[in-house]
Amino acid sequence: MKKLISLLALVMPLLAQANEGVHLDKAPINPANQASLQRGAKMFVNYCLNCHSASSMRYNRLKDIGLTEDEIKGNLMFAGEKVGEPMGIAMNKKEAKGWFGATPPDLSVIGRSRGADWLYTYLRGFYRDETRPTGWNNVAFDKVGMPHVLYELQGVQTLQTEEVKDADGNKVETHKLVLDKPGKLSPAEYDATVADLVNYLMFMSEPAKTTRMKLGILVLLFLGLMFIPAYYLKKEYWKDVH
């Protein structure tokens, strides 16, 4: 327990520092939208699962978002042989570290650790930065090692710096992303695609969340109903005392 507390004390400031000073856009996701989750699963398999594993997620859990076993096998399984296998990758960790400077993290619980708004901002916040080894940087994760794998869909953004005056008349720098070269999707279409991907990442981080919340509501309703007979039963048993 002491080691766990020490680890949390070390990690939490780092997570707070990662989000400090970053404006996070609200992620327009809907966990109950199965069509969105299915599109997000397709995006994850095609664009993320090449480098990032999801070792705590098995392909058969995709049945929870309305896919059949045949649909999973035919459309989403490129790295596994059986539907019950976890979402692994073939990339060697040492080689990946040499290519990117760090081993791409497992994304099984990235939604729970980062949150939907951070992921939505991050996936839309890449811009060209020739000082970086990959040629890319990110407004939500400065000096990020990951290249912009979705640039063909979004296009190429640049970061423009402007000087404006604040309420006190002092000059302050503001940064704004500008689409320098359009991609295959319009900005609105790209935002919707990223929302689908984030929706799936949040589902993957806790596949049983919807079921748990429904069960929790039923339990609270049951306890609320049981309170009435329990209250009068208590009064009957304790009437001689009170």
From TrEMBL:
Residues in the signal sequence: 1-18
Cytochrome c domain segment(s): 35-205
Keyword ATP-binding among record annotations: no
InterPro entries: Cyt_c-like_dom, Cyt_c-like_dom_sf, Cyt_c1
Keyword Signal: yes
Key words, A-Z: Heme, Iron, Membrane, Metal-binding, Signal, Transmembrane, Transmembrane helix
Cofactor or coenzyme needed: heme c
Main location: membrane
Top-level taxon of origin: Bacteria
Any one Pfam family match given in the protein's UniProt record, by short name: Cytochrom_C1
GO molecular function, one term: heme binding
Membrane-crossing segments per the record: 215-233
Cofactor note: Binds 1 heme c group covalently per subunit.
Localisation per UniProt entry: Membrane
Sequence positions that bind heme c: 48, 51-52
Assigned GO CC terms: membrane
Name the record gives this protein: Ubiquinol-cytochrome c reductase cytochrome c1 subunit
